[in-house]
Amino acid sequence: MRVPDAIVAALAAVAVSALLPVAAASAAAPGSTAGAAVPGPVRPVRLLIPAPPGGSTDTLGRIVGQKLGDALGQPFIIDNRSGAGGTVAAETLMRALPDGHTLGVAYTALTVNAVLQKVAYDTLRDFAPIALLSTSPLVLVVGSNSPVKSVQDLIAAARVQPMSYGSAGVGSGGHVTGEMLNLMAGIMAVHVPYKGAGPAAVDVASGQIQFQFGAQLTAQALVKAGRLRMIAVTSAKRVSTLPEVPTMAESGLPGFEFNNWFGLIGPAALPVPLIARINAEVDRLLASAEVRERIVFDGGEPAGGPPSVFRALLAADLAKWTRVAKAIRMQPE
To answer: Which of 117, 236, 295, 330 fits a disulfide with 300 by CB distance 3.0 to 4.6 angstroms?
Structure first.
């Protein structure tokens, strides 16, 4: 017999209260001093990252995990759960006990997948948004041996010969932007999903596929090695760290814009005081020069803000991607 969700949530709440320090009770007791310590994790925290090691999502997650571990007094153990555009990690997190000892990094695919795939989770019901970490555009890359030097070259070539593009999986930013290019340019490049953006970039460099929309961090090592060429960015304005790379709009596709977001989430029913404490620590680390400079160097912009802003973004994203899916005629897989 299936136990009702309400009972499961109540049992989880009891388990949470048992695992958190006694300080939680004293903070709520009459006469307790203002500003009493908010309970935090009491053992190592598993941080689920929906990407393989080495990419932009993994790098950001490791930075945040290290800093939060220092601030909260417990180490963050990185658990890379790549696959299905982040769905593997999301579904693992959804089933975790909401006690603060399992958290996850999420990105745009958390909302896109809810529209484009038949997933087991409900984005707004099954997760607790904790903090928005950063936003960043993608870069359009081709192999260095490709004759393509611009977006218009790519479009012209795609109209006369078959082309394919890679992404980190169905529902990822690289997938959605590839389909946006197909729609706006009137081409039919074939999508090839990978378990991460890194392997897709390697195949672009080797000529197995023709292009990719990927993170700057993922692409830049291969660009520096002379194996990839950046031909455009998906932001509305040029990126300060790539001033020589034009935007998609500048390249002949006005209105083409996409910015990936990255955030920290937990399972639903995560205690509100714990969410507030972790959110405050994230805001502090995002305000530090070290972290801000690293995010900007990797092509992003630090975000931050209260959990309510993050939740509003998730809701707005779900509505937006539903409209986009209809416009580009993409159906759930």
So the answer is: 295
pLDDT in tens, 257-302: 998 899 999 999 999 999 999 999 999 999 999 999 999 888 889 9
Amino acid (1-letter code) at residue 166: G
Order across the sheet with 211-214: list the strands: 190-193, 164-167, 211-214, 139-143, 228-233
The CATH number of whichever domain residue 308 belongs to comes to 3.40.190.150
How far apart are the C-alpha atoms of 293 and 193, rounded to whole Å? 31
CA distances, 127 to each of 70, 93, 95 (Å): 24, 8, 10
Amino acid at 271: P
Q: How far apart are CA 61 and CA 140, in angstroms?
A: 23
Do 50 and 129 have their domain in common?
A: yes
Token duo for residue 179 = 């389909």
Tell me whether residue 39 is exposed, middle or buried, using C-beta atoms within 10 angstroms of its C-beta: 0 to 12, 13 to 18, 19 or more. buried
DSSP labels, 163-228: -EEEESSTTSHHHHHHHHHHHHHT--PEEEE-SSHHHHHHHHHHTSSSEEEE-HHHHHHHHHTTSE
Please give the helix or strand (H or E) that residue 278 lies within, else none. Answer: helix 272-287
Length of the chain: 333
Give kind and range of the element (H or E) at residue 48: strand 45-49
- pLDDT tens digits, 40-85: 899 999 999 998 888 788 999 999 999 999 999 999 999 999 887 7
